[in-house]
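I hope you will forgive my troubling you with a question about protein structure. I set the record out below, with my sincere thanks for your time.
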Amino acid sequence: MTTFQFQPRWKEELVCIGPGGEFVLDFPMGVPSVYVPTEHAWAQSAPAWARELWPVFKAELEAWCEEHNVQFFLDGSAKCYGVVAKA
């Protein structure tokens, strides 16, 4: 079982659901690709509950991208947004 689940959403967003809630990454659909914050950028924009999960998140999202023919890009300007904590 994985720690994270990934759900594409219209408006070119990828919803990332984890143990503490969810957040969104940019997911352009012209050429399906996802822009992931670098480890440094992740530490600054990821929700607090996810910050220590960077290696798990990256590995699981890379596997998801490969399975779904989605290009994976590490981008220092990428950010997590739309953070929703589990109640």
User: Anything to note?
Assistant: The mean pLDDT is 94. Residues 54-67 form the longest helix (14 residues). The helical segments are 39-45, 54-67.
